[in-house]
Amino acid sequence: MTRYDVRHAPFAPILRKLGERGVYEGAFISKLNDSEGEAAETQTWVEFSVKCNYLGKDSGRELFKEYDEIISMLISMISKPNIWVLPSGKKETRR
């Protein structure tokens, strides 16, 4: 049984990668912090794209909002890593 559901689908690759080798809380938080920074950088590029008329305002707003939601999820995961990380970084056994 996995520890995430459909709402966390954007994070499935990160969770799978970390889960495959077992992970410590610090490594998990570090990976999520990196992801948060990348999402914020993407928002900046969305803003530039709209200002340079490469992207329409409506599309830009929609994308920016989507990334706000992703960042919120990342922050939530960072603030409660115990939900996502197995104790002592041990892998969960599959049944």
Overview features:
de novo design (two linked rop proteins); 62% helix
Would you give an account of this structure?
The chain is mainly alpha-helical. The chain has a domain at 24-80: 23S rRNA-intervening sequence (de novo design (two linked rop proteins)), CATH 1.20.1440. The protein is 62% helix and 0% strand. The chain is built from 3 helices and no strands. The model has no long low-confidence stretch (mean pLDDT 79).
In a few lines, what is going on in this structure?
This protein is an all-alpha fold. It contains 3 helices and no strands. It has a domain at 24-80: de novo design (two linked rop proteins), CATH 1.20.1440.
List the helices and strands and how they pair.
Layout: H1 12-20, H2 25-51, H3 57-79
Helix pairs in contact: 2-3
Kindly identify the CATH topology of the domain at 24-80: de novo design (two linked rop proteins)
CATH superfamily of the domain at 24-80: 23S rRNA-intervening sequence
Order of helices and strands: HHH
Total strand segments? 0
Number of helices: 3
> How far apart lie the N and C ends?
8 Å
Shape, per Cα inertia axes: elongated
CATH class of the domain at 24-80: Mainly Alpha
